[in-house]
Amino acid sequence: xxIDTARxxxxxxxxxxxxxxGLPEIAFAGRSNVGKSSLLNRMLNRKALARISSVPxxxxxxxxFLINSSFYFVDLPGYGYAKVGKAERRDxxxxxxxxxxxxxxxxxxxxxxxxKVGATPLDIQAFEYFCDLGGEPTVVATKIDKLPxxxxxxxxxxxxxxxxxxxxxxxxxxxxxxxxxKELWREITTFLGGEAREANENEETDG
Length: 207
Ligand SMILES: Nc1nc2c(ncn2[C@@H]2O[C@H](COP(=O)(O)OP(=O)(O)O)[C@@H](O)[C@H]2O)c(=O)[nH]1
Ligand SMILES: [Mg+2]
Description:
This protein is of the alpha/beta class. It has helices spanning 36-44, 86-103, 121-132, 149-164, 181-206, and strands at 6-12, 25-30, 62-67, 71-75, 108-114, 138-142, 171-172.
């Protein structure tokens, strides 16, 4: 995909800030520090676009980036901060619930798992949560450059097994080397193609 424009649109801290224009949304989720900002920047060929989300006060928000004026990348707040209090965790869960219930099923959610660390109990919980809400997460194994080639197959198989008894096929990804960029874009364009077809069909039946 050629990226002509990629613009930060806004940080949503509550339901009223969610996008209402009906453009397709591709949401990205993962533990904090999993490499989400790096992946978004790499996918969009921008050096620091997604860092906006790491400025204080915005890490708990849902951040919208508009791509080529035609779809959104949605940066969901990272889960698993060690130091957040109960109230903040509750706010986080509420915002995520509201967003995901509205976007899944039918939307696209990309779940990032640290390729070196493997799937943690929090990753499993998140995966099950997304599935319960009707999502079918596309799983990406980040920082794959850190893993020796000889350990790859076992590690990727382990992630698939732990998350889904082997039904998902994690995409190995590295923001350092660019591995996985094409494959993830392929998944995204397939999703966008389906969205476009659906919109057309609706138009035909409406008119
Ligand atoms: N080796 C390696 N390190 C990475 C990669 N992606 C991210 N990192 C590092 O992991 C840390 C967290 O990355 P960041 O993108 O900020 O994670 P986020 O908290 O999920 O947004 C940073 O120190 C990055 O430099 C990768 O593909 N390979
Ligand atoms: Mg980040």
